[in-house]
Amino acid sequence: MKLIPTGIENFKTMIDKNAYYVDKTNLIADILNEQVVLYTRPRRFGKTLNMSMLAEFLDCTKDSSDLFCGTKITKSVHYKELNRYPVVFLSFLNVKAGDAESLCYALKDTVRAEYERFYQMVNDGRLSEFQVKEFNMIYNSLCQESIGKEIENHVIRSIAVLCQALSTYYGEKVFLLLDEYDTPFMSANSEGYYDEVRAMLNRFLATSLKGNDYLQKAILTG
User: Fold this and answer.
1) Which residues neighbour 74 within 8 Å (Cβ) at sequence distance 6 or greater?
2) Cα 9 to chain center, whole Å?
């Protein structure tokens, strides 16, 4: 008997546990035909599950052929994209706080975790000396306990810098998956410090998405 996947939001976990799964893999083909995609849906509509599915399908650091065996996407011309691209996958689910400084900490920690996932590539010889220096500078700022203007500027540039490094290293442009993108905005608004962080959050998104020459596609949910 298959498991009923109550509360499971991770595609790999659902398949590994042999749980019931409504095949939504054709969504991958739909998304690959767009450039920047924003999905706005109420809670419990499967946004996070679909984002984890995309990450498993696209991420070139994984081998996901077994996970997608028998699904609809295997019959699509887009199946050749399986595990082809570097993927930056961020969830802003926990980027919320009672004050502006704590929110900045939460954002910084979320981005730092993604930097750490790729840290091994820095000294592999494929990046230029400047790229290694810039990657390390951003990463060191993300590890700081304090929040200042210089560190804030590094956070704002962090995704653009990471995309450049990943594109150089893997030879493909990057997919950026940003789940719950609106959580920090809503948290700041409800807690009364929206004006303090609005510019920083806007610049973070703009730098990550607009004019990012190393970005293949961006998918946002909220």
Assistant:
1) 68
2) 15
pTM over 0.85: no
| Distance in angstroms (rounded) separating the CA atoms of residues 6 and 23 | 16
What does the pLDDT look like over 77-99, one tens digit per residue? Answer: 989 999 999 999 999 999 999 99
Q: How far apart are CA 114 and CA 33, in angstroms?
A: 26
Task: Report the C-alpha gap between 46 and 52 in whole angstroms.
Answer: 10
- pLDDT tens digit string along 156-211? 999 999 999 999 999 999 999 999 999 999 999 999 999 999 999 999 999 999 88
Q: Give all strands of the β-sheet with 87-91 in edge-to-edge order.
A: 36-39, 215-221, 174-179, 87-91
